[in-house]
C-alpha cells in the first residue's frame, strides 16, 4: 500500500534563513527552492498515478512469471532430453548425469532411456522409472538406485561396483557380465533376472527375491554376504562359482 503524507508549505525565505550566517544564506536559498519544488510535486496527482502504475506493473510481472512457470519447466525438461538423446551411443558423461538426475527429481519417467556406454559414476537415481532402459556397458559405480525400477532393462557389461540397489526392481533385467562387486542388493527383486558371468563378489544379498532367477551360470559369489537360506546351494548347483579375485 502506498501512503502519501501531504508536505508542509515551506516558510518564507526570510524566516527560513533568519539567524543563519550571511555566508550560508545562498545555500539556504537553494535548499528553500528545492523545498518548494518538492512541495509542488507532492501535490501533483500525475506523479502519484505513475507510482501506482509502477507498483501495478510489478504485480503484473509476478503474475506472468508464475503463469509461465509450466512452460519454463517443460522447456527445462526438453533441454534435458536433448542432452541425453544427442549423446546417445557416445562415451563420457556428455551432461547426461545431470540431465537424468534433474528429470528424475522432477518425477519424469525415464522408461526406455538409452545411456549405453555413458560415464554415470555417482548417479543419484533413487526411485527412478528405468524399466527397459539401456545401460549396456555404462559406468555407474557408487550410484544410488534405491527402489529404482530396472525391470526388463539391459544392464549387460555395466559397472555397478559399490552401488546401492536396495529394494530395486531388477525383475527380467539382463545383467550378463555386469560388475556388482560390493553392491547392496538388500530386498532387490531378481525374478527372471539373467546373472550369467555376473560379478557378485562381496555383494550384500540380504532378502533378495531369487527363487525365479533365470540364470546364474558362472556368476561369481565369492564373499557375497547375507545370502538367503538355500540360495548358495541352488546357485552353485546351477553353475555359479566362488572364485577370489583382486578387488581392483
Provide key terms for this protein.
single chain; 248 residues; mainly alpha; Pectate Lyase C-like; 6 helices; rod-shaped
Characterization of the model:
This protein has 248 residues and is an all-alpha fold. It has two domains: 13-67; 73-248, Pectate Lyase C-like. Helices cover 32% and strands 0% of the residues. It has six helices and no strands. The protein has helices at 13-16, 25-42, 45-67, 69-86, 96-105, 231-237. Helix 4 (69-86) packs antiparallel against helix 5.
Could you state the oligomeric state of the chains shown?
single chain
Strand content: under 5%
Question: Could you list the spans in which at least 5 consecutive residues all have pLDDT below 50?
Answer: none
Full CATH superfamily name of the largest domain? E3 ubiquitin-protein ligase SopA
Order of helices and strands: HHHHHH
CATH architecture of the largest domain: 3 Solenoid
Rg from Cα: 35 Å
Number of helices: 6
The strand count comes to 0
Q: What is the name of the CATH class of the largest domain? A: Mainly Beta
Mean residue pLDDT: 85
Biggest sheet overview? none
- The helix/strand class is mainly alpha
How many discrete structural domains?
2
Q: What is the overall silhouette?
A: rod-shaped
CATH fold title of the largest domain = Pectate Lyase C-like
Terminal CA distance reads: 68 Å
Helix % is 25-40%
Amino acid at each position: 500500500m502506498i501512503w502519501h503524507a501531504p508536505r508542509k508549505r515551506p516558510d518564507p525565505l526570510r524566516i527560513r534563513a533568519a539567524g543563519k550566517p550571511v555566508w550560508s544564506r545562498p545555500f539556504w536559498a537553494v535548499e528553500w527552492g528545492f523545498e518548494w519544488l518538492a512541495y509542488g510535486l507532492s501535490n501533483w496527482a500525475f506523479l502519484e498515478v505513475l507510482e501506482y502504475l509502477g507498483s501495478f506493473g510489478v504485480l503484473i510481472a509476478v503474475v506472468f512469471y508464475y503463469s509461465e512457470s509450466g512452460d519454463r519447466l517443460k522447456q527445462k525438461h526438453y533441454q534435458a532430453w536433448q542432452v541425453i538423446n544427442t549423446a546417445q551411443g557416445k562415451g563420457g558423461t556428455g551432461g547426461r548425469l545431470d540431465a537424468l538426475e534433474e528429470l528424475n527429481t522432477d518425477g519424469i519417467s525415464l522408461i526406455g532411456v538409452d545411456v549405453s556406454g555413458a560415464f554415470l559414476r555417482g548417479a543419484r537415481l533413487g526411485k527412478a522409472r528405468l524399466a527397459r532402459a539401456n545401460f549396456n556397458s555404462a559406468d555407474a559405480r557408487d550410484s544410488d538406485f534405491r527402489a529404482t525400477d530396472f525391470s526388463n532393462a539391459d544392464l549387460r557389461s555395466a559397472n555397478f561396483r559399490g552401488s546401492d540397489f536396495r529394494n530395486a526392481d531388477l525383475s527380467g533385467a539382463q545383467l550378463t557380465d555386469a560388475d556388482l562387486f560390493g553392491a547392496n542388493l538388500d530386498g532387490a527383486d531378481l525374478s527372471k533376472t539373467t546373472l550369467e558371468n555376473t560379478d557378485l563378489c562381496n555383494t550384500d544379498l540380504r532378502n533378495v527375491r531369487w527363487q525365479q532367477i533365470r540364470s546364474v551360470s558362472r556368476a561369481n559369489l565369492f564373499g557375497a554376504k547375507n545370502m538367503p537360506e538355500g540360495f548358495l546351494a541352488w546357485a552353485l548347483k546351477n553353475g555359479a562359482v566362488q572364485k577370489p579375485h583382486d578387488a581392483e
